[in-house]
Amino acid sequence: MPDVKSNQKPFFSIVVPCCDVEQYVRECLDSVLRQPFQDWECLIGVETSKDKTEEIVREYAAKDARIKVFTGPRSGSCSASRNTGIDLAQGDYVIFLDGDDTITEGCLQRLHDQIAERPGADIYPCAMRVFNEVTGRDEPLRDNYPPDFSGELTGPDATVMIYKLHRDPCPMLQLSVFRRLHLVENGLKCLHGLKRQDSEFAPRALYLAKRVIPIHEPFYIYRIRANSVSMLNKNTGYYLKDYSGILKSLLAFHAKVSREPGFDRRISEFWAKHWLNWICYYWFAPRVIRGTPRARRREALKPVFTDGFGDLDRLSRAATRPRRVAALFVKLFVRNQFLAWLADAFFICIYNPLVGIRDSARKAQ
Q1: Same domain membership, residue 212 and residue 65
Q2: Is 263 in the same domain as 204?
Q3: How many angstroms separate the CA atoms of 130 and 127, rounded?
Q4: Closest alpha carbon to 45 in 87, 10, 93, 6
């Protein structure tokens, strides 16, 4: 736990999960320390590392009281460090920065000035620059909102906008600045142990926001590297456990909010399309069926429905007919091990070819 606390709340709390990033963490922390805007605290969560990551961050903390270090056991995920960082944060706004990434020169001042012009929004979506260390090239700028949009949205309206614009919106937490009280008051935490925790966290955080103001500041530089958690071991079936937890949580979230007065039914349509696609892709894509034993896929999918299929049925009602039929075969796959082969046959022979033809037609338009 950090042993130094300031009596004055900083404007930004920068939460930095770190594990085995000795090669990158100095660059990460230097990008914060070089900022002309100095009203920040940096909360560094170090999970048990095999290199000198902890030694390096403690070196930085010894020189600057705004840098505070906490530790935890190795989990293979950013979730625990991010959650502890949220608990410890004192700033008005929270920024999530991974220990192998950096922020752009002078960005904190620009973010502060734009937030000060329209303060109090729950989320300020920004933009992200991406450097692919594997190819040595910059990739296209990531921004979920139209670059010329300067308005203000509710969380539900923002949800509708990004799903209309993007077939697969980028869910990364690092794209946004969050009002700390939005995270605290809504109990917004990352699911422990997930490697793809953004996919579960982002839809909930966005929907629950009362005010969303996109400011398009490309403040974050995301590094794609060959030995990162998100890149390692991407073999067939690697993310089954992750998406099992993600889907269980999000289906329950939809079931809850869709019963509230004034719920926008378009959101169910977008979520149904997106989340049912995850099941079809991660459990029933041709390469997954060929490369991952059926028993393993069934065991990974069962936990999604430990409370029954009510949440899936509620979401499926908003889906297109092909996805509703797909949901029926998903239920068959989970319920009956002796007929699970029939679900695989449906996806291989009917659903996947149909979706492939439709997607090709869309790209040609």
Answers
A1: yes
A2: no
A3: 10
A4: 87
Say if residue 302 is in the same domain as residue 204: no
Q: Helix H segments across the chain?
A: 25-33, 53-63, 79-88, 107-117, 155-165, 180-185, 197-207, 240-257, 265-284, 286-291, 294-301, 310-316, 321-335, 340-346, 352-364
Whole-number pLDDT of residue 59 = 97
Q: Evaluate whether residue 229 is within a structural domain.
A: no
Residues 199 and 294 in one domain: no
72 & 214 share domain: yes
Same domain, 146 and 202: yes
Residues 231-285 pLDDT 10s? 545 667 788 999 999 999 999 999 999 999 999 999 999 999 999 999 999 999 9
Beta bridge partners of 95: 14, 177
3 occurs within a structural domain: no
Regarding pTM above 0.85, the answer is yes
Q: Which residues contact 327 (CB under 8 A, 6 or more apart)?
A: 276, 312, 313, 316, 319
Structure token pair of residue 182: 């939005």
Q: Where do we find the tokens 């950096």? A: 102
pLDDT at 229: 54
Q: How far apart are CA 347 and CA 353, in angstroms?
A: 8
Contact 246, 154 (CB under 8 A): no
In terms of residue numbers, what domain contains 205?
12-224
The CATH number that applies at residue 52 is 3.90.550.10
Find where tokens 């999000």 sit.
250
* Secondary structure (DSSP) of 203-236: HHHHHT-S-B-----EEEEEEE-TTSTTTTT--T
The answer to whether 49 and 19 are in contact (CB under 8 A) is yes
Q: Are residues 158 and 251 in the same domain?
A: no
